[in-house]
Design a protein that fits this description.
The chain is mainly alpha-helical. The chain is built from ten helices and five strands; from the N terminus they run αββαααβββαααααα. Helix content is 65%, strand content 7%. The chain has a three-stranded mixed beta sheet, sandwiched between helices. Strand 4 and strand 5 form a beta hairpin. Helix 1 runs antiparallel to helix 7, helix 3 crosses helix 6 and helix 6 crosses helix 9. Belongs to the peptidase M48 family.
Length: 276
């Protein structure tokens, strides 16, 4: 039985392995757009109905304007790099929610939410573009689908643990399950940090392609580190996100590369049969 599970996991890995465009990171994704996007769009609609959309026309227009520019840059990249069918699946939408939470997010398929609480951290239009680029990058790299795939793998791993310890005494089985739980939890946190770092880099490329100043991506995290509660953050190895200082360091180091990549992708020509 254990051999069957191991073989199944190997086959799944071989069939489902792909590469994240631009960064080149290998990923495993078992969840198709057809499976996840209808649910994503429905959940987004429900969220908007249950939360207070901002009535500040100026701020809302700024969020939407930045989102449109960055999504167009992403769309152009996809259509110029044989990702036309994926580009066609996105339904870009940008909303500002009246809430003091310091956050923004993007659901699979391009459904974006900014909370008014993050705007002071953004501070200006380029800061908004930095956060927008990061959130859009999560959808572009299909991090949501990848995390769902990882959850499936964890369930299979749990089955493997149960099978492997079936003949042991209850205490031994409990210890194995605890070891599996702690290991998978910390592994998932590190996995999430990988996604965050990748989104930081992709987002910087996209904001440059859209005509925004990439230095502001660094400044956003400097301002984030200056928040009153920044010192209360958990140690990085127990966090789903890299530390503020790690992000500042990484973004500063990546900026020259981002400039080169953005220039390269901005000058790409769309195929004649590609519709934008």
């Amino acid at each position: 039985m254990k051999k069957i599970i191991a073989l199944s996991l190997l086959v799944i890995f071989m069939v489902s392995c792909s590469t994240v465009p631009i960064t080149g990171r290998k990923r495993i994704n078992l969840v198709s757009d057809a499976q996840i996007l209808p649910s994503s769009f429905a959940q987004y609609s429900t969220f908007l109905k249950e939360n207070k959309i901002s009535t500040d026309a100026r701020k809302t227009n700024e969020i939407q304007s930045v989102g449109i520019r960055i999504s167009k840059a992403v769309d152009k990249f996809m259509r110029a790099n044989n990702m036309v069918s994926e580009a066609n699946n996105y339904r870009w939408e940008f909303n500002l929610i009246n809430d003091n939470t310091v956050n923004a997010w993007c659901m699979p398929g391009g459904k974006v939410v900014f909370y008014t609480g993050i705007l002071p951290i953004c501070a200006n239009t380029d800061g908004i573009a930095a956060v927008m680029g990061h959130e859009v990058a999560h959808a572009f790299a299909k991090h949501g689908q990848e995390r769902m795939t990882s959850a499936y793998a964890q369930q299979l791993g749990g089955v493997a643990v149960a099978v492997g310890t079936a003949n042991k005494d209850p205490k031994a089985r409990e210890l194995w399950n605890m070891a599996y739980g702690v290991g998978s939890q910390l592994g998932m946190l590190a996995y999430s940090r990988t996604h965050e770092t990748e989104a930081d880099k992709l987002g910087m490329v996209f904001m440059i392609m859209a005509g925004y100043k990439p230095e502001e991506a660094v400044n956003v995290w400097i301002r984030m580190s200056q928040r009153a509660d920044a010192s209360k953050a958990p140690p990085e190895f127990l966090s789903t996100h890299p530390s503020n200082q790690t992000r500042i360091k990484n973004l500063r180091a990546f900026l020259p590369t981002a400039m080169v990549l953005a220039k390269k992708y901005s000058t790409q020509q769309l195929p004649a049969n590609s519709k934008q």
